[in-house]
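Now for a typical sample entry:
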Amino acid sequence: MEKEDKLPKTSFFKRIIESIRSFEKYSTFAQEKSKTAILYVLKLIACFSIITTICFIIQLTKNNITQYLYFDNIYINYILIFVITYIVLLISYFLATLIDILILALIGYITAKFLKIKLEFKKVYNISSYAITFPIVINGVYFIINALTNFTIKYFQVMYIAIAYIYIITAIFIIKSENIKTKSN
């Protein structure tokens, strides 16, 4: 049995909190199967898509676009808009996030090689999958604030990736220090 199979099960919401607050858990995240990390990201994006869909509907309502909708029953219109928007956003955000994770994993892998830290790409990919959590949560909060107040941040996407990269580098250094401790014992 591989080391991956012996990892303890952790609830989704506990993973969110651990990925934001506990850099020490990243060595455990790195050991997981990639399928587990991808499913985590899918669940995270599903939650994020609900938030963005609601914000989108708020914007439609604020701009009075709902008067041009097809069905006479306003509830059917909102349900239809919600379902279609949610599916489109879920697919597009999931694919975009996977691309972000791949780019972050590649940068993290190169950084680990540069720092002479032996990490497989799969482990850096898993770390990247969890490192993107805090930026996604911040992005959700940003969408809510933007929908309610029209407040915008000019270079938000740059900050989004920079925060994830800081998480990856911190996790790599913690894994390196754990490896040094293990070798010295």
Observations:
- The chain has a mean pLDDT of 86.
- DSSP finds seven helices and no strands in the chain.
- Residues 24-177 form one domain.
